Amino acid sequence: MNDEQLLRYSRHLLLDDIDIAGQERLLNSHVLIIGAGGLGSACAPYLAAAGVGKITLVDHDHVELTNLQRQIMHQQESIGMSKVASGKRFLKSLNPTCQVEALEKRVDELLLKALIGEVDVVVDCTDNFSTRHLINRVCVSYRKVLISGAALRFDGQVSVFDFRNPHSPCYACVFPPDPNYVETNCASLGIFAPLVGIIGTIAAAQALQVIIGFGEPLIGRLLIWNARTTQIDEIKLTRHHACPVCGSGAH
Fold it and tell me: pLDDT tens for residues 18-47?
């Protein structure tokens, strides 16, 4: 690190769990964030500010007025811009040394396979059940770490699926694929503005922990936040050997 970086990240360097070695790992890391809406707007800025070397931001959507209640990467003047372009501008204003790749694309299997192989961590900040399952399947096949967050109305959840670990469950172990699942989203049900900030920043913290390698990330645990009661619950997760994605008969 140069003198400017030593000063910029000095508060991290004071932490024994991070120190210079951990900060160097962040500076050399590459995180893929899928979704530049509410969750991504909270997650991406903390990763950029903390010193993640490269962030690839993927989203096909454009900024609308209704987004501004909670999607803090985007401002009034961002309306009509692609979310990834608006997000890149915001992240570069936070930390010009962070390399930000903005991809205005809809996520599909081909795109994920082209991207996931070269990243250290994948953060799923989408709001679509089928897309979450697609991301999970590709992460399983590439043995990448997947951090998955979700938020709707007053309820949020986040977990870490570490496919480098043969005992780690996958997203499908917890939420089995269901072809009859009816999608729900905040456009129809609403969402409490700070909720995406809480879940998104927890996801960012998990990514930093995984990259640096300290503490106990939410592997095998699902953290649930109820914003009505300000209650945090935790559910223990186990890998299902009959899981259609990561189970013994899946490949």
Answer: 999 999 999 999 999 999 999 999 999 999
pLDDT of residue 181: 66
Q: Which residues contact 176 (CB under 8 A, 6 or more apart)?
A: 243, 244
Domain contains 249: no
**Average pLDDT over the chain, rounded to whole?**
94
List CB contacts of 108: < 8 A, sequence separation 6 or more.
Answer: 134
- How many domains are contained in the chain? 1
Q: Which of 157, 96, 91, 81 is nearest to 124 (CA)?
A: 157
Q: Which domain holds residue 195?
A: 3-236
